């Protein structure tokens, strides 16, 4: 093992001293052993995730580098352009990925006294958190390849990944516009080969997943024919038209292929897969799935009781007189007034109101010192693209990227379909009532998803962006928006909006509970819808859309809930280890750190003041 140069010894010794305060073993620390594996891996693994590179604000990475121990720097390699790349799901591509990820997992988890192993606990703080972040990423991807085998049975992922790369390249300003439009044309030229690989990989799927993939395929075709075609510069139209025709023909062929793909009713993921996937996607060890289910159930009942208590004074204010004879009628009576009197009159009305709400959210965040929102951060509120409406049944968000010049995020709001009946339209407008639109603006815009990319652009180095934004931890990314919505409502909104938040909170916990019950037990879709409508007070069309999304995206709702809990724990830990706590300082610092598992995250934001205990959910 080679020690760092003497000029670096003093800060390294200070770092070790800080680690000692967190009860780590102190001794010789092995940054060389970490760096020779991790430094090349950061770039090599980024090259496998074109969408992650895009979100990191990059268009290329240098792969095949070697870490020179004596110079403490990467050398060699070649630049890989990713502006127009598509994911490689070929057998050779998957084998290369497995080799790359295994090449990091093996030494990172080997016994310290083995030939490859080293004691990661002796790493200085920054490398220790990086070690945990990269290990989690590698283990998540290996599990996806080896156990989930998404490439063999999930056609929806192929289509959504393609659609997202086209959509994000079209809408996010992370590279010059002409470069992005040229990249779209090049990407479209690769669609036939991409989909041929998908057809070679797919052996069977559930009827539900096939139907969802076919619906999404039509959405990607419409994206190409409408959105991309309309925005394509006139000087590029001739090159675009030919490649677009070829891509659309390939998508139509893929749709026909899906129509003949062997199918069944096997959409349940199963307890073993769900448990391990939850651990990896939340970045923490969990108790047995039965214990997690029991905790979710108890949390749901607590949230329901909280909603009942909040309904009682509002019910007296509205109706006076005696309390309704049961909790269901109590809550419904309040909702009938609050939602009915605060309902947009059309899909367009929802969009316009949400745009106003994003502006209001910016002002609240800064005036109440909740989170640092730059004046440069802008938002577009648009309809959810068709290809994402299976996975995003109500609302969503994307961007901005971490590129320095990209300051515009996108909020998605899913409208009632054009052929919706009057009852269905009323249902959707009731779901997205004016109070709930404020919550959606917070969660999916400012200070939710939009602030992640905005503050990530302030990361110290480009390498840090690749460490923390490539294949980011789902619990971190999806837990933050619901956590910050709760924080903002509690700080700035009145009784009526808070009541709708408590309903939304109940539905979020209910979705997590249904997610686990559907995929690890025998809860049917019909019973799930009934539970969400009767116990969580969700409108029927919203409940049906949510249940369908849960069926095709196992663990997504549960991971969001665990991630939300993680952010609550992180904040409590930060307050305990910081003398002058402020919300805006904590939130800004945390988001600029980037995605990482919770223990590493707590350690990073509290400046080595101690590691967070996770006993409340792990035991």
Explain what this protein looks like in three dimensions.
There is one protein chain. The protein is mainly alpha-helical and 619 residues long. It folds into three domains: 143 residues, no CATH class; 106 residues, no CATH class; 312 residues, no CATH class. 64% of the residues lie in helices and 5% in strands. The protein contains 27 helices and nine strands. The protein has a three-stranded mixed sheet. Strands 1-4 form a two-stranded antiparallel sheet. Helix 21 packs across helix 24. The radius of gyration is 25 Å and the shape is globular. The two termini are 38 Å apart. The N terminus is likely disordered.
Summarize the structure.
This protein has helices spanning about 10-20, 30-45, 50-55, 90-110, 125-150, 150-155, 155-170, 175-190, 190-200, 205-230, 235-260, 270-280, 290-320, 325-340, 345-365, 420-430, 435-445, 450-455, 460-470, 475-490, 495-520, 525-535, 540-550, 555-575, 585-595, 600-605, 615-619; strands at about 60-65, 65-70, 75, 80, 205, 265, 380-385, 395-400, 410-415. Strand 2 (about 65-70) and strand 3 (about 75) form a beta hairpin.
Summed over residues and divided by their number, the pLDDT gives a mean of 90
Major β-sheet annotation: 3 strands, mixed
Number of helices: 27
Cα-based radius of gyration, to the nearest Å: 25 Å
What coarse outline follows from CA principal-axis ratios?
Answer: globular
β-strand amount: 5-15%
Q: How many beta-strand runs?
A: 9
How many structural domains are formed by the residues?
3
Q: For the largest sheet, list the strands in their spatial order.
A: 7-9-8
Determine the structural class based on helices, strands and strand pairing.
mainly alpha
Unreliable residue runs:
1-28
What is the oligomer described by this structure? single chain
User: Which range best describes the helical content: under 10%, 10-25%, 25-40%, 40-55%, 55-70% or over 70%?
Assistant: 55-70%
Measured distance between first and last alpha carbons: 38 Å
């Amino acid at each position: 093992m080679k020690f760092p140069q003497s000029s670096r010894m003093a800060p390294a010794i200070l770092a070790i001293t800080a680690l000692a305060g967190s009860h780590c073993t102190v001794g010789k620390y092995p940054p060389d052993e970490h760096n020779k594996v991790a430094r090349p891996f950061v770039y090599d693994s980024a090259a496998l995730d074109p969408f992650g590179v895009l979100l990191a604000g990059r268009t290329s990475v240098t792969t095949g580098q070697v870490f020179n121990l004596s110079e403490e720097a990467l050398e060699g390699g070649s630049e890989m352009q990713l502006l127009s790349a598509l994911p490689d799901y070929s057998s050779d591509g998957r084998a290369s990925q497995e080799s790359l990820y295994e090449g990091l997992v093996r030494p990172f988890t080997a016994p310290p006294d083995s030939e490859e192993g080293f004691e990661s606990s002796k790493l200085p703080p920054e490398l220790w958190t990086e070690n945990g972040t990269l290990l989690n990423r590698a283990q998540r991807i290996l599990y996806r390849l080896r156990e989930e085998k998404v490439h063999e049975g999930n056609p929806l992922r192929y289509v959504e990944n393609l659609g997202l790369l086209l959509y994000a390249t079209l809408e996010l300003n992370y590279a010059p516009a002409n470069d992005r439009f040229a990249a779209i044309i090049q990407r479209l030229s690769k669609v036939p080969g991409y989909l041929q690989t998908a057809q070679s990989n797919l052996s069977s799927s559930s009827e539900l997943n096939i139907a969802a993939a076919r619906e999404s395929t039509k959405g990607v075709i419409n994206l190409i024919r409408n959105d991309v075609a309309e925005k394509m510069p006139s000087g590029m139209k001739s090159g675009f038209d030919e490649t677009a025709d070829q891509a659309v023909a390939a998508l139509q062929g893929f749709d026909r292929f899906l129509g003949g793909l062997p199918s069944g009713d096997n959409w349940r993921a199963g307890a073993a897969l769900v448990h391990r996937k939850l651990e990896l996607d939340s970045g923490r060890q969990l108790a047995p799935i039965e214990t997690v289910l029991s905790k979710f159930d108890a949390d749901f009942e607590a949230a329901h009781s909280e909603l009942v208590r909040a309904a009682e004074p509002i019910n007296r204010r509205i109706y006076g007189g005696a309390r309704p004879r049961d909790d269901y009628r109590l809550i419904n009576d309040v909702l009938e007034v609050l939602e009915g009197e605060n309902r947009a009159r059309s899909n367009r009305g929802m969009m316009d109101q949400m745009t106003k709400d994003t502006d209001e959210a910016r002002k609240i965040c800064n005036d109440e010192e909740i989170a640092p929102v730059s004046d440069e951060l802008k938002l577009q509120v648009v309809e959810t693209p068709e290809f994402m409406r299976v996975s995003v049944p109500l609302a969503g968000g994307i961007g901005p990227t971490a590129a320095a010049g990209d300051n515009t995020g996108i909020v998605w709001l899913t409208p009632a379909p054009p052929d919706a009946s009057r009852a269905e339209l009323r249902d959707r407008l009731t779901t997205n009532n004016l109070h709930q639109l404020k919550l959606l603006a917070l969660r999916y815009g400012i200070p939710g998803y939009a602030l992640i990319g905005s503050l990530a652009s302030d990361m110290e180095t480009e390498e840090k962006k690749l460490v923390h934004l490539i294949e980011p931890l789902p619990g971190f990314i999806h837990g933050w928006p619901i956590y910050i919505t709760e924080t903002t409502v509690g700080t700035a909104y009145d009784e009526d909006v808070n009541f709708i938040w408590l309903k939304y909170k109940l539905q979020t916990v209910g979705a997590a509970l249904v997610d686990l019950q559907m995929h690890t037990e025998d809860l049917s879709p019909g019973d799930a819808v009934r539970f969400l409508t009767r116990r969580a007070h969700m409108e029927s069309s919203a409940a049906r859309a949510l249940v369908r999304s849960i069926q095709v995206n196992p663990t997504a709702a549960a991971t969001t809930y665990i991630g939300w809990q993680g952010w609550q724990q992180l904040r409590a830990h930060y307050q305990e280890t910081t003398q002058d706590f402020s919300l805006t300082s904590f939130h800004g610092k945390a988001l600029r750190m980037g995605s990482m598992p919770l223990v590493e995250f707590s350690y990073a934001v509290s400046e080595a003041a101690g590691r967070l205990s996770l006993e409340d959910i792990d035991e």
